User: What shape does this take?
Amino acid sequence: MKLSFLLPLGTLLFCAMSLYVIKTDVDSRHDELVRLKQAVKSQQDEAAILRAEWGYLTRPERLLDLSQNLLSMSPIPQERIVSIDKIPLRRAPDNAEADNR
Assistant: This one.
């Protein structure tokens, strides 16, 4: 009679302990999932902020203003722009000049 009582009790205890171990494992994985989702969201927010900053910093009117003020640059005047046909080609060096180098 004792054996017939102890076997179901042992099985019940084994099932309860197994269920508890599985539950704690699932809870820890759920916590990790929540943490990872928060990290991904944080990274996405940071990337969006960086994209917005890049868009602000690379505005053409801002870059033009910076180039004029800080680098003393100005746009190229129209008369300095010529076609490729008007650019003189470099002459090939003579053999005597090439040997001296």
